[in-house]
Design brief:
This protein is an alpha/beta fold. It has 2 domains: 97 residues, Leucine Dehydrogenase, chain A, domain 1 (Rossmann fold), CATH 3.40.50; 125 residues, Rossmann fold (3-Layer(aba) Sandwich), CATH 3.40.50.720. A 6-stranded mixed β-sheet has the order 2-1-3-5-6-4. Strands 9-8-7-10-11-12 form a 6-stranded parallel β-sheet. Pathway: Metabolic intermediate biosynthesis; chorismate biosynthesis; chorismate from D-erythrose 4-phosphate and phosphoenolpyruvate: step 4/7. One of its GO terms (biological process) is chorismate biosynthetic process. It is an enzyme of class 1 (oxidoreductase).
């Protein structure tokens, strides 16, 4: 039996198990299973490493950074970002990758305009690290937005300024705000100041159109949810696990 898994807390919203079980069924992979492992503490990952049938696992909130000390090797992306969302287990090695990078980049650029030069990032977790990596690669300047901003970050009050929103036409939600079952929530933005010059990208995929995206769409903004990012990174995970 070949086992694959996801670790995180909580996993009730997880996309991965359903995706891979459908993949196994469609491709006739009867010797493959996918398991959810809700870990209360990252230290609990040790019991996964003792399973000889486990070929690899993916990682979601809140362990993308906490997993790093448990790895024996890291890809260049993981080293640069200090965030990992995919681990391959092979010949006693624990090899870390970050497939959020390729997933975000490929899904993000489809609606990007040449005029998009500056971005606001809502949230500072592990997924935000991949977003920053891609924005740097694309030459897009960015600022974090936080409820408790550090130096060189904006507060949510700051971005109620029309001047700032005219400059920063890309807004990327890396926070869980608006995720099912709290889909009535949205980041605290001055949505009335948005226009068709803006591009709103939400890493949340359930619901398909979050309140963040809906409010932007009403102002004529381009919108994209996180579903394509997840499908791209899932296939990248699969390739990494089976190298």
């Amino acid at each position: 039996m070949k086992k694959y898994a996801i670790i995180g807390l909580p996993l009730g919203h997880s996309f991965s198990k359903k995706y891979f079980e459908q993949k196994f069924a469609q491709e006739g992979l009867s010797d493959c299973v996918f398991e959810n492992h809700e870990l209360q503490r990252i230290e609990e990952v040790e019991h996964l490493f003792r399973d000889p049938e486990l070929k690899g696992f993916c990682i979601t909130i809140p362990y993308k950074k906490a997993i790093i000390p448990y790895l024996s090797e890291c890809s260049e992306e993981v080293q640069a970002m200090q965030a990992c969302n995919c681990v391959q287990l092979k010949q006693g090695k624990r090899i870390g990758f970050n497939t959020d990078v390729v997933g975000f980049e490929k899904s993000f650029i489809t609606k990007l305009h040449k005029s998009d030069k500056k971005a606001l990032i809502l949230g500072t977790g592990g997924a935000a690290a991949a977003v920053c990596f891609v924005l740097q690669k694309l030459g897009i300047e960015y600022k974090f937005v936080s409820r408790s901003p550090h130096a060189d970050q904006f507060s949510y009050q700051d971005i109620k300024s029309a001047d700032i929103l005219q400059q920063y036409t890309v807004i990327i939600n890396c926070s869980p705000v608006g995720t099912f079952p709290k889909e009535d929530q949205a980041p605290d933005l001055a949505y009335e100041l948005l226009s068709d010059r803006h591009y709103l990208y939400d890493l949340v995929y359930n619901p398909a159109v979050t309140q963040f995206l809906h409010k932007g769409q009403l102002q004529g903004a381009r919108i994209q949810n996180g579903y394509p990012m997840l499908t791209i990174q899932a296939e990248e995970n699969w390739m990494n696990w089976n190298r």
